Amino acid sequence: MDLAPGAIASWRAHSQRLWGERFATPMDAFAHLGAVQSQEYQPSKLTPAMRAVPDDEGLAFAGPKAVDALIEQGAVVRTHVLRPTWHTVPVGDLRMMLTASADRVKQLMGTNDRAFGFDAALFARATAALAEATAGGRHLTREEASAALAEAGIPDPTGQRLGHLLAHAELSMVVCSGTPKGAKQTYANFDERVPAGPIAQDEAIRELARRFFASRGPATVKDFTRWATLKVADAKAAVADLGLEEVQVEGFTLYFAHEPPAPREGGPVVDFVQGFDEMMCSYTDSKDLVLHHSMPRSVFPDRPRFNSAILLDGQVIGNWKATPKRDVLLVETWRVRGFTAAEIAALRRGADRLRAWYGKPEMELGLDHA
């Protein structure tokens, strides 16, 4: 297969539905992606929103309220799964994802377990206390969860210790996110919120692999392994069972479920994606393919000035930061190189889509580059 530079990025943008036909709703986008990394909840809403059709006048894609509604309804839950961080996941997929990867994630958390002095007996007491405190539809804020743990005799359930105990309970299928109370996330009883339906671990891993390569391919086995915190042997077995096609690119063996899209016509495309968008954080082994092919890898900073990324034709070319003000969205940008006139025009269009999503009538766009 003869691929032009940047073709993998374009292929992935179509697989993820950042490009091409958008989904009818953000819920459909969640269902396709399976999991959206969301340690920062507000920016994370951009990921499903950008992949869904506009739901309000003046928007280029779905608005943030549509994503908030899914959280409030319990259609998706924000919880610890796949890796030791937050993800937002369709509620019907959560049990499958935890079955596939929770034990491995807990192993990664073992260092902190020991540092905090936590052992199996303490975790058993803590999870039992949280299960009882959330039973009957009670959704607890962090402060209320802390109080329940303290009442059960768990020493100092505050700060990072509390976060670690709650994450362990999430991975143990005891609690997951509940209905927010104002701006505060809550914790709900897992079995009351998540549909029943046990699944064997090998079947869960195979389903996770199917979802990953259908929504993120072409990607390597290591990309999948690290995304889902799996043993390499288990990931390889799942990929073999699925019978995925493969392509060789720059020394990587990339697997895919859908044929490459037709070559895109027209001028450059610039997308402003949040810092943990799946276009970037889904790929670790083949992460260099995410960087723009027009520039050497060495010019991309290890610590970018801003966290969120500017994608030029699907590849990272710089970073951005948005600061909402009363009637204006200030968008600061930094790029690893200067842009052509056509690229600047595409950059302005991308920033204007962002302005509309933030609900601001005006925009100030700052341009800076190396």
UniProtKB/TrEMBL annotation:
<protein>
    <submittedName>
        <fullName>Winged helix DNA-binding domain-containing protein</fullName>
    </submittedName>
</protein>
<dbReference type="GO" id="GO:0003677">
    <property type="term" value="F:DNA binding"/>
</dbReference>
<keyword id="KW-0238">DNA-binding</keyword>
<dbReference type="InterPro" id="IPR009351">
    <property type="entry name" value="AlkZ-like"/>
</dbReference>
<dbReference type="Pfam" id="PF06224">
    <property type="entry name" value="AlkZ-like"/>
</dbReference>
